């Protein structure tokens, strides 16, 4: 939108932050600490904000002390692409001081992972053999592979990963960043479920004056005196952009469900340049795959443990042929292509192919996600029948099975060098197939920015008053060092917040004369973060917890005169509508039945279960 002198502004702030993920929370916090009155605005409903930071593995890159070597490492990872040296230098400096960042700005002594501690945890988890354990093993293996992720490009061996604590994938980092916002509600207003639709920009000076957002069904013009910061994440949930930039029909998102490409849309309105939008990370079975998901739903992370690559099983491409080594794995979302690391190979409808004995083996595994995958299985009494059902070439599929059987009997995979101990010849039918698709952890590209977090236009100039941080245009270029995405949020979120807060010589104050010209109600313009009160009766207690994957869980617990549990009511929660909601529905009844909050977690919802139990414990602890 072009700014005119007659524009009707509805409300005025010093800084507007578009996107309440890790980068947005950080930017808002540091803008407020530098004297700005801030509006932090997100398209997601309350409890579902947080972007990919909420769902990430929660570990952050840390290189203790070897800053110069780490800078050279990042530049080698960026090759052969051109890169902004100052941008990578800023990233490396931030990673080298990440421990101090956690201590100073998050108030914690971070947990530092090394190979020895991660491997010890993996061995203990393997003994449990549960779905939650398998998920944690996948995260720990990622950590071990990330120290460093591409050792052939560096002599560094001290590259580490740090986190809020030893647990993975529990949203702890995001919760900490979110609480820093909550502590500053005198300086930061928050709007949920209010997508930013447009930037408002001066046609003469190109200065970004503010934004237009949709609030309670109404379009609202919000004026920014000093700056607008774009932190609205990537485009994992925008099929058109996935097709445009990645050349795939669709991908299954593993993280945020509200990343629809707003950062790119807003940047393009202001003539911003794009920055490597074809870069992304996958994770999961084989080369970053998961089973078929339903559009609009978050896909489960399915670890690549040995059941998927041992025995009479292989992955077939669209025509029914094998196209990579099944017992190899991704390295930070990239595959080895004859000495060059590239994003995973793309097929439209790949399938996992296996025989009866492998089907029986998989059926006995109680992994809940695997059982959901098996529910999508296709059966054929012959390879010709199976090929017809999965749209593969029957002759190609038969030849592939024959070749596979030959390799298994010869104890040598002449095609892809899969380990001979991982191959067993197929029996004579029936045969099975499970459809798979590429899983998408995060997009990496977006709008271009410099080391000051200023957004750069197509002519190489900084767009006045416009900044970005995080996945909106990640500083990670080409290959990815583990933990750098969250590091980017923390490093450039801070820089963007500090720089946007500073009053400029061309600060735009003239819009204040027309405030609230459209006569919106005070409720429309008020912050969505409010102090909530919950009523209690006799023998009733309120308990709260920040441990779940959503925002705060609040319960009202009722006990009898002997302090026995009689009822557990969930008054507030924002857990996912699949496994998280299952825990919310089932656990209160089980707690009352057992007269204890210490009940078994719901499979696939360990974090929600832990948060709910913590809230009930908090309530019971208040009983005299």
Keyword list:
single chain, 624 residues, alpha+beta, eight-stranded mixed beta sheet, six-stranded mixed beta sheet, 19 helices
Short description:
With 624 residues, the chain is of the alpha+beta class.
Walkthrough of the structure:
Helix content is about 30%, strand content about 20%. With about 625 residues, it is of the alpha+beta class. It starts with 10 loop residues before the first strand and ends with a helix. Strands 1, 2, 6, 7, 8, 9, 22 and 23 form an 8-stranded mixed sheet that branches. Strands 10, 13, 14, 17, 18 and 19 form a 6-stranded mixed sheet that branches. The chain is built from 19 helices and 26 strands.
Global shape? globular
Q: What would you report as the Rg, rounded to the nearest angstrom?
A: 26 Å
**Count of beta strands:** 26
Helical proportion, percent range: 25-40%
How does the SSE layout of this entry go?
Layout: E1 11-18, H1 22-33, E2 38-41, H2 51-55, E3 60-62, H3 67-78, H4 85-96, H5 98-106, E4 111-113, H6 115-128, H7 131-145, E5 160-163, H8 172-182, E6 188-191, E7 196-201, E8 208-215, E9 218-230, H9 239-246, E10 252-253, H10 262-269, E11 274-275, E12 280-281, H11 285-288, E13 289-291, E14 313-316, E15 335-337, E16 340-342, E17 351-355, H12 356-363, H13 368-374, E18 378-380, H14 383-389, H15 394-410, E19 431-440, E20 442-443, E21 446-447, E22 454-456, E23 462-468, H16 484-501, H17 522-525, E24 540-545, E25 553-559, E26 565-572, H18 579-594, H19 606-620
């Amino acid at each position: 939108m072009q700014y005119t002198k007659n524009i009707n502004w509805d409300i005025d702030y010093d800084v507007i932050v578009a996107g309440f993920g890790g980068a947005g929370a950080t930017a808002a916090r540091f803008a407020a600490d530098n004297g700005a009155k801030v509006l932090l605005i997100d398209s997601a409903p309350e409890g579902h904000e947080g972007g990919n930071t909420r769902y990430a593995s929660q570990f952050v890159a840390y290189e203790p002390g070897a800053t110069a070597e780490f800078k050279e490492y990042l530049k080698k990872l960026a090759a052969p692409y051109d890169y902004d040296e100052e941008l990578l230098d800023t990233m490396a400096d931030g990673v080298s001081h990440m421990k101090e960042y956690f201590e100073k700005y998050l108030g914690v002594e971070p947990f530092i992972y090394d190979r020895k501690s991660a491997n010890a945890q993996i061995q203990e988890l393997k003994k449990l053999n549960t779905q939650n354990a398998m998920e944690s093993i996948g995260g720990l293996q990622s950590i071990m592979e990330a120290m460093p992720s591409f050792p052939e490009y560096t002599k560094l061996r001290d590259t580490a990963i740090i986190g809020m604590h030893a647990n993975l994938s529990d949203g702890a980092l995001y919760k900490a960043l979110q609480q820093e916002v909550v502590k500053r509600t005198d300086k930061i207003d928050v709007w949920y479920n209010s997508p930013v639709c447009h930037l408002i920009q001066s046609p003469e000076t190109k200065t970004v004056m503010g934004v237009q957002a949709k609030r309670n069904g109404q379009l609202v013009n919000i004026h920014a005196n000093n700056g607008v910061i774009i932190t609205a994440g990537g485009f994992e949930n925008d099929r058109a952009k996935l097709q445009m930039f990645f050349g795939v029909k669709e991908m299954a998102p593993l993280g945020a469900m509200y990343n629809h490409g707003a950062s790119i849309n807003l940047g393009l309105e202001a003539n911003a340049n794009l920055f490597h939008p074809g870069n992304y990370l996958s994770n999961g079975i084989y080369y970053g795959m998961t089973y078929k998901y339903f559009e609009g739903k978050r896909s489960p992370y399915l670890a690549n443990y040995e059941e998927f690559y041992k025995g009479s099983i292989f992955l077939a491409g669209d025509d029914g042929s094998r196209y990579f080594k099944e017992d190899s794995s991704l390295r930070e979302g990239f595959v080895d292509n004859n000495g060059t690391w590239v994003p995973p190979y793309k097929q439209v409808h790949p399938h996992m192919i296996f025989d009866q004995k492998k089907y029986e083996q998989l059926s006995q595994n109680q992994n809940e996600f695997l059982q959901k995958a098996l529910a999508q299985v296709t059966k054929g009494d012959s390879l010709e029948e199976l090929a017809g059902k999965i749209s593969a070439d029957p002759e190609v599929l038969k030849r592939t099975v024959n070749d596979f059987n030959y390799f298994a009997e010869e104890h040598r995979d002449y095609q892809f060098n899969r380990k001979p101990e991982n191959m067993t010849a197929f029996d004579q039918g029936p045969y099975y197939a499970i459809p798979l698709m590429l899983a998408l952890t995060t997009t990496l590209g977006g709008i271009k920015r410099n080391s000051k977090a200023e957004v750069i236009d197509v002519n190489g100039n900084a767009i006045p008053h416009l900044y970005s941080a995080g996945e909106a245009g990640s500083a990670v270029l080409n290959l990815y060092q583990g933990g750098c995405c969250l590091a980017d949020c923390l490093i450039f979120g801070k820089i963007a917040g500090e720089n946007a807060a500073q009053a400029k010589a061309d600060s735009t104050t003239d819009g204040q004369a027309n405030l609230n010209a459209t006569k919106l109600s005070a409720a429309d313009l008020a912050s969505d973060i409010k102090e909530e009160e919950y009523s209690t009766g006799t023998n009733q207690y309120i308990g709260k917890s920040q441990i779940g994957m959503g925002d705060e869980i609040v319960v009202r617990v009722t006990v009898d005169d002997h302090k026995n549990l009689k009822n557990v009511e969930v008054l507030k929660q924002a857990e996912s509508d699949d496994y998280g909601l299952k825990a919310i529905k089932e656990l209160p009844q089980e707690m009352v039945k057992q007269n204890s909050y210490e009940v078994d977690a719901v499979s696939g919802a360990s974090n929600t279960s832990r948060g709910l139990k913590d809230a009930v414990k908090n309530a019971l602890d208040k009983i005299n």
